[in-house]
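Quiz preparation item.
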């Protein structure tokens, strides 16, 4: 999968055998939400992925993103992990 070298203030989406990032955009009650998914493969007995979901909302007063939540989950499905990789924003290619 492609790796992109980015400059300051840009977001990276990438993946490898043991790591991935992805970004999902949603709207809820008129607010724009972005969720950064950062996954790390678990190589011990339990296997799967530890994924941190960090959610941001667009703050119109500050004209920037404001973090509103973070949660860690354990995913055992390779299929589900693969669904989180890349951009999930209407109008943008996945990679």
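Solution:
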């Amino acid at each position: 999968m492609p790796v992109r070298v980015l400059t300051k203030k840009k977001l990276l989406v990438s993946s490898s055998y043991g790591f991935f990032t992805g970004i999902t955009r949603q709207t809820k009650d008129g607010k724009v939400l972005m969720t950064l998914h950062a996954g790390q493969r678990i190589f011990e007995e339990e296997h799967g992925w530890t994924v941190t979901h960090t959610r941001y909302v667009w703050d119109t007063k500050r004209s920037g993103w404001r973090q509103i939540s973070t949660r860690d989950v354990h995913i055992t499905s390779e299929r589900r992990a693969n669904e989180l990789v890349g951009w999930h924003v209407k109008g943008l290619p996945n990679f």
